[in-house]
């Protein structure tokens, strides 16, 4: 293969550039785009463009580039190794390598050919690459001197000084690559390259200003080499002395850490102490979070190096940092609530006929919690530092605050509860305004369950009173211990372990809140209550940790809506699974009668008001039409079945006012299914539903899928009908999906076979 003039011109375009590989790559890409696929020039441009775009990462050369791009199973671009390139690419590299003008371009081509082990004597490519890299380093340093001479006094950060630094860094990279090739293969040029690297490091210290980037590129590969690290030690000692002023301490720390690698083991202790002093000097020259992070680094080094006194010094210094020295800003993002969101929540309290019913409603109405979340694509995820300002101390440092979407899911849980806390706050305030309860009014109601002794419930009642008076601190201080105690008593009553026996020197103890939260599933609390309690009370990463933060005085007064969440959870722990209070509505109820509020509250049977849970999914009643729009009653089925399905659909639509109607709607659809089965099975008689399902399967009327669905529905209806479980609830869209399955199943069964002559259209069910 011969070099083509147009392509060679592009390859030699970087001769006067500070970044020859980038300049040549741009020219080659332009030539590739101007030519047509299949043409010889096009293929040459592509092959050489790929060579300029290869990057070395973790010791491996790889390229992700237009005509040579490679993707994994997820469609993501992945680096393509040198050896995976087509043979024609290697031929192009061989043809152009000796023709190139700039030694750095020539070095790149020979380096890649060595990696691919091309030719009968690949070592010749290695030797050519080593020599070309050394030549390139000299050429780039000469270019930097020329640029520096053009400006008598270049401004730091100006255009000329930037180009000078780029050329110097490129020269340093070239020498490092030459060393990386020569050292492992024991080339005789190794000694000369080491000398050139040390000379460039000394020069970097002498430049005004010094170049720590160039210096680091020269010292890093040498200090890890047993053979060459003695040669680099004098340079590091000099560099440590050089970087000792204001703004240079972080370089001093890095250089001392490299020096530790270059000295003998018996000198490590001395260097460790010097590193510690450098860390403390860096901290002393910093303020705010920068100072805190510098002290954290100092503490980590002192701990790992066994410097006990030094670690104590760091602790004393760190604990003297006041909160006012940490520039903590709160960033708020406005979150628009759906229209009527809080009004609907308050309306539910207006529908209650007593304070007991209002609080029981709050106790048993959970928020909606997501059980999965994927980090939105394109969402910026930055390295994150978690700080407890009470130390102050860094509690966690992560490279990215979103591993597998889990952190994002935790933040969604907290966000959902914060929004729901606004609902509970509005409802509790409406309870206060409507019923005017005092602590004495609440105690008999709170002390109703067996696990709620009156002596403890007085404190909880006072917590509600303090909340209504605006004293959030007192409300939380009273409610949190009572919440934990009530939970422990409920576990105890359920014969679930709440004690840990002594073992060896470990004393026996009553389990604390963290252990109790782990037992919520055993207690039988329905979802999402276990998740709600863990998110609000737990101290794992991503949880609110309200109990510890408040009772250990680690935070300022929490927001009022979070205090409302704690009070709701206390009510839930009290009343979940308990019978609701009797609806007496009389003055003998033991609580104050409601004051006049509005016409709705004065009705003996209040007008329907929106169920606040519905507002998690729709914003108004009219939206429910879209939810049920797809539920079309199948044509041709018995009229009684059609009527039942129509009723089922209306029940779902009206779950806007009574959330539990969604479950009743599904159970009602099973009645229609039984009507259809009796119409399709000639000898159905008075057989119960399970017998009809069995007969339908045996006769071929029902498929395996249909049979399984009907049995599951029958079991659910049995459990509810026989009082084995309370109504479950489901979001409107879930209910619509399950009803759609029922409607489709009825249509399939009715159309499957001709109806027996003896079948009658009856709506009479005979059994479950």
Question: TL;DR?
Answer:
The chain is mainly alpha-helical. The chain has a three-stranded antiparallel sheet with strand order 1-2-5, with helices on one face.
Describe the structure.
This protein has 768 residues and is mostly helical. The strands form 4 sheets. It has a 3-stranded antiparallel beta sheet with strand order 1-2-5, with helices on one face. Helix 12 (268-284) packs antiparallel against helix 13, helix 19 runs antiparallel to helix 25 (560-575) and helix 30 (689-698) packs antiparallel against helix 31 (704-721). The longest helix is centred in the middle third of the chain and has 30 residues, at 406-435.
Q: What's the alpha carbon Rg, rounded to whole Å?
A: 38 Å
User: Strand order across the biggest sheet?
Assistant: 1-2-5
Number of helices: 32
What is the average of the pLDDT values?
A: 81
Amount of beta strand = under 5%
């Amino acid at each position: 293969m011969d070099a083509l003039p147009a392509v060679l011109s592009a390859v030699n375009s970087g001769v006067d550039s500070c970044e020859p590989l980038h300049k040549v790559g741009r020219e080659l890409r332009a030539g590739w785009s101007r030519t047509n696929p299949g043409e010889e020039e096009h293929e040459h441009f592509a092959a050489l463009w790929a060579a300029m775009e290869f990057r070395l990462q973790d010791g491996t050369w790889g390229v992700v580039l237009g005509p040579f791009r490679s993707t994994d199973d997820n469609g993501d671009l992945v680096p393509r190794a040198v050896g995976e390139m087509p043979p024609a690419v290697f031929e192009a590299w061989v043809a152009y390598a000796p023709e190139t003008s700039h030694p750095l371009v020539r070095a790149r081509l020979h380096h890649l050919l060595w990696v691919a082990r091309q030719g009968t004597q690949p070592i010749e490519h290695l030797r050519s690459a080593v020599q070309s890299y050394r030549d390139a380093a000299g050429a780039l340093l000469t270019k930097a001197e020329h640029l520096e001479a053009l400006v008598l006094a270049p401004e730091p950060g100006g255009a000329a000084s930037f180009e000078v630094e780029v050329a110097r860094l490129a020269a340093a990279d070239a020498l490092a690559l030459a060393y990386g090739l020569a050292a492992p293969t024991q080339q005789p040029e190794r000694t000369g390259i080491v000398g050139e690297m040390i000379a460039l490091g000394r020069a970097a210290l002498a430049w005004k200003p010094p170049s720590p980037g160039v210096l680091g590129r020269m010292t890093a590969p040498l200090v890890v080499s047993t053979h060459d690290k003695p040669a680099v030690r004098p340079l590091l000692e000099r560099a440590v002395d050089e970087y000792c002023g204001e703004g240079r301490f972080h370089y001093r720390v890095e250089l001392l850490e490299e020096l530790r690698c270059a000295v003998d083991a018996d000198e490590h202790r001395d260097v460790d102490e010097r590193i510690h002093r450098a860390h403390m000097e860096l901290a002393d020259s910093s303020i705010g979070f920068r100072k805190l992070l510098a002290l954290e680094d100092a503490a980590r080094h002192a701990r790992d190096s066994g410097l006990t006194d030094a670690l104590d010094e760091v602790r004393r210094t760190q604990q003297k940092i006041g909160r006012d020295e940490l520039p903590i800003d709160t960033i708020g993002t406005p979150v628009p609530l759906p229209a009527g969101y809080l009004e609907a929540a308050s309306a539910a309290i207006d529908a209650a006929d007593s304070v007991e019913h209002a609080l029981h409603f709050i106790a048993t109405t959970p928020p909606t919690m997501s059980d999965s979340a994927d980090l939105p694509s394109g969402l910026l995820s930055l390295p994150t530092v978690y700080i407890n300002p009470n130390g102050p101390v860094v509690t966690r440092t992560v490279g990215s605050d979103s591993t597998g979407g889990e952190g994002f899911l935790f933040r969604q849980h907290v966000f959902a509860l914060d929004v729901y806390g606004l609902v509970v706050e509005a409802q509790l305030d409406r309870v206060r305004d409507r019923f005017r309860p005092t602590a004495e009014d609440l105690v008999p109601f709170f002390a109703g369950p067996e696990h709620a002794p009156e002596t403890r419930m007085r404190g909880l009642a006072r917590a509600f009173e303090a909340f209504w008076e605006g004293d959030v601190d007192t409300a939380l201080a009273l409610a949190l211990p009572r919440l934990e105690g009530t939970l422990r008593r409920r576990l105890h009553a359920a014969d679930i372990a709440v004690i840990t026996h002594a073992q060896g020197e470990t004393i026996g103890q009553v389990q604390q809140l963290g252990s109790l939260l782990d037992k919520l599933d055993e207690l039988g609390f329905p979802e999402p209550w276990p998740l709600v309690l863990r998110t609000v009370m737990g101290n794992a990463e991503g949880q609110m940790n309200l109990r510890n933060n408040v009772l250990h005085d680690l935070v300022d007064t929490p927001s009022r809506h979070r205090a409302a969440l704690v009070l709701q959870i206390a009510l839930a722990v009290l009343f979940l699974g308990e019978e609701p209070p009797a609806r007496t509505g009389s003055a003998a109820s033991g609580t104050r009668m409601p004051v006049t509020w509005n016409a709705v509250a004065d009705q003996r049977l209040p007008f329907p008001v929106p169920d606040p849970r519905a507002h998690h999914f729709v914003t108004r009643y009219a939206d429910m039409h879209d939810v049920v729009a797809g539920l079309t009653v199948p044509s041709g089925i018995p009229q009684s079945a059609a009527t039942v399905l129509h009723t089922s659909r209306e029940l779902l639509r009206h779950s806007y006012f009574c959330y539990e109607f969604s479950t009743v709607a599904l159970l009602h659809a099973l009645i229609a299914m039984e009507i259809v089965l009796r119409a399709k099975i000639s000898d159905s008689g008075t057989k119960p539903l399970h017998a009809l399902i069995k007969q339908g399967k045996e006769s071929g009327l029902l498929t395996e899928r249909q049979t399984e669905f009907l049995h599951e529905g029958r079991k659910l209806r049995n459990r509810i009908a026989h009082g084995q479980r309370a109504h479950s609830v489901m979001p409107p869209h879930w209910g619509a999906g399950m009803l759609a399955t029922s409607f489709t199943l009825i249509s399939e069964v009715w159309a499957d076979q001709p109806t027996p002559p003896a079948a009658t259209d009856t709506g009479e069910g005979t059994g479950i």
